[in-house]
Amino acid sequence: MSKSRPTILICDDSLLVRKKMKDCLNEYGDFDIIEASSGQSSIELFKQHDPDLVFLDIVMPDKNGIDALKEMMAVKKDVKVVMLSSSGTRSHLKAAMEAGAHDFIQKPWEKSQIEHIIRNVF
Amino acid sequence: MFSQYFGNYLLNKGIIKPEQLTDALEYQRSVHLKLGVIAVNAGYMTPAQVEEIHNMQKKVDKRFGELAIEKGYITGQQLEEMLATQRQGHLMLGQALIDRGHLTIEQLQKALDEYKKEYGMSTRQFNVVRKDDSQEIEQIFRDHGEALLGKMYSDYVTLLMKNLIRFIDDNPTIEINQFKSDITAQWFVSQEIFGKINMLTAIACDKDVFVKFAARFAQEEITEPDELAQASVGEFLNLHNGIFLVNMSNNGVELEMNPQQVEKNRMLANPGKAYVITCSMTWGRFDVILV
C-alpha cells in the first residue's frame, strides 16, 4: 500500500489529549492521523495502517502502553514510537527505553517538543 | 463537614457585595497580614486594643507585637504563634477587606466568630491553605495523626495546589478535612494509585463546576458535561497523579496507576476514613477526595 502522506497514530484514552495532539500536528505538516483510545485498539490500528510515527500513552484501558510498545516493535522493529505520558517514573522510562521507544515526552508537553520530534522523524 | 469558603460565606450572609469580594481577592495577593487581625482572630486581643496599639505606633517607633506584650495583651509565646500563622488564607482575605475599606476590624471579628460557630470549627480546622503553605499542609496531616502516610498526603496536596495554580486558576484556596461517612457527587472522576501504597483519588463536583473546570483545563469552549468535558477533568486528574508518581519515583517509591474513570451521580459508601480537600475558586468549589 503506497501512502501519499505520512501516517501518525495517536494512542491515548483521553479525547482531549488526542484533540490537542491533532491540532498541534496539523500545525507542523500534512499528515494522515489515526486515533486509538485503548492499548488493544492501538495494536489493531498499528497493524492496519502501518504508521510512520506513533505517540503512545502508558496508562490506558485494556493494555498499557509499554505492552503495546513491545507488540508494535515485534511487528515492525524500526518503527518510531514516542511515549507520551504523565507518568514518567523511573520504572516507566526504563521499560520504555528497553522496549525500544524512540523518545519519551512527559505530559504536559510543549509544542516545541512535538515540533522537534516531527522535524527529526520526517 | 464541608466548610464554606469564608468569602462565599460573607457573600451569602450579605456582609459584603460580590464586587467587594472580587476586589479583595485581587488585592489580597499583595496584602501583608497584620498582627492585629491575627490577634483578634485568635481571641487574644479585642478590636479596641488593636486600635490602641495602632495609635501608639503613630507616636512610638516600636513593632505591634512589642507594644502588645508591653501592654500585657499578649505573651511572647502568643506573639510567636501569631507570626507563624501570618499566612492564613481566610485572614488574608479579611485583611484585604479591611485594607480596601469594605469591612472594619469589628465587622471582621463578628463574621469570623459566626463563621467558626456555624461550621463548628476549631482554629486549626479553620485553616485555609494557600499557594506555598507546604509546612501548614504537613502540620494539618500531622494533627490528624497521620504519621506514616502524612508526608505522602501532604506532598500530594502541596502538588495539587501547585497544579491548580498552573492549570486551573491562579488564586485557589483549599481546606482539608477528614470525612467518615458516605460521599455523593453529581460528577465523580476517580483514579486508583497502587503499589507500595494504595490510594483512591477523586474529583467530586456539581455539573456547573465540572463544566467550568473542564473548560479551564482544556482551554476550549465547553458548555456541557459532554465527552470532551469528561476527558478534560479526567486528564487533569491523570496529569496531576502522573506528576505525583514521578515525584514519588524520584524519592525511590515506585507506584502505578489505573486509567481514570468518570461517573455521574456516584455514591461512595463510607470509606472509613477519607480526606476531603475542598478547593475554592471565585467561580466555584469542588472536592478532591483521598481514600
Q: Explain this structure to me?
A:
The complex is a heterodimer of chains A (122) and B (291). Chain A is α/β, with parallel strands linked by helices and 122 residues long. Chain A has helices at residues 15-28, 39-49, 65-75, 90-99, 111-121, and strands at 7-11, 32-36, 53-56, 80-85, 103-106. Helices cover 47% and strands 20% of the residues of chain A. In chain A, strand 1 (7-11), helix 1 (15-28) and strand 2 form a beta-alpha-beta unit. Chain A starts with 6 loop residues before the first strand and ends with a helix. Chain B has helices at 6-12, 18-27, 35-42, 47-59, 64-70, 76-84, 89-99, 105-118, 123-126, 134-143, 150-167, 207-218, 227-250, and strands at residues 173-179, 183-195, 199-205, 255-257, 261-268, 274-281, 284-290. In chain B, strands 1, 2, 3, 4, 5, 6 and 7 form a seven-stranded antiparallel β-sheet that branches. In chain B, strand 6 and strand 7 form a beta hairpin. In chain B, helix 3 packs antiparallel against helix 4 and helix 12 (207-218) crosses helix 13. Chain B starts with 5 loop residues before the first helix and ends with a strand.
Keywords:
heterodimer, A: 122 residues, alpha/beta, Rossmann fold, 5-stranded parallel β-sheet, 5 strands, 47% helix, globular, B: 291 residues, Chemotaxis protein chec, 2 domains, 7-stranded antiparallel β-sheet
Summarize the structure.
By secondary structure, chain A is an alpha/beta fold. Helix content of chain A is about 45%, strand content about 20%. Chain A has a single domain, classed as Rossmann fold, CATH 3.40.50.2300.
Q: Name the CATH homologous superfamily of the largest domain in chain B.
A: CheC-like
- Count of DSSP strands of chain B: 7
Number of domains of chain B: 2
Q: Can you summarize the main beta sheet of chain B?
A: 7 strands, antiparallel
N-end to C-end Cα span of chain A: 19 Å
Shape of chain B: globular
How would you name the CATH homologous superfamily of chain A? Response regulator
H/E element order of chain B: HHHHHHHHHHHEEEHHEEEE
- Spatial separation of the terminal alpha carbons of chain B: 16 Å
- Taken in chain order, the helices and strands of chain A follow as EHEHEHEHEH
Rg measurement of chain A, Å: 13 Å
CATH architecture of the largest domain in chain B: 3-Layer(aba) Sandwich
CATH-defined topology of chain A: Rossmann fold
